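Q: Sequence in, structure out?
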Amino acid sequence: MQIALAASAAILFSAGTVHAAVDDVVLPSGLTGYLHEVITDEATGRYRYRFVAPEFSTEAALDVVSADLDHLCAEIALPEVPEGGQIIVSLANEPSDFGVAAPNIAQVFEAYRAESGRCIWEEF
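A: Exactly. Output:
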């Protein structure tokens, strides 16, 4: 498994894959965020796209948050993930270390499967 951190660089590297840096993503909700990191595990076909939007709150309506996550999957992750790959999109109000508990950070995530050029929602 490889982790690619988004800094001021123009590209992100992960497991031999080059990801375009994504700054100032405008979400359907009106929030603005950026791609914090991409974590890929090509052996399992899992691709994690971690986004940060400082104004994000878990108080937002479920349909609004879902639309934002769907957008991030379809517009940012899907073009880089092979057919059949699992895409996990997360959105938080500040960056955090992957796998480390951060109870003061608002965060949501959703899983999708790349299928026929679409993000298909997967229930956990």
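Residues 62-77 form the longest helix (16 residues).
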